[in-house]
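Bug #77: duplicate submission created two jobs. Keeping one. Sequence:
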Amino acid sequence: MSIREKYDIIEKDFHKDRNKALKEMIDLYVYAIDSYENDIVDAINLYVCDLGDKEIYNYLEKKMNLVNNEFLRNEFKDWMRIIKSKNNNI
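Kept job's structure:
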């Protein structure tokens, strides 16, 4: 299944469980950054930063500790900073 097909499936089911969809998008992002699917990479960034909450913050923190890619760690740190600035309960 292509990155675009996977993204379309996640986005289609977004309304069913937002945090599940955001986690799946974060997982997909890890693969999408090495592709030519720049619009998907940008969309995932926007979704996570705009809709992320404490659960997504914690998921990003967990993922950040599992990846060996410095670019990804920095991206996740930036997303966490943005989410934290929007949510007082983190």
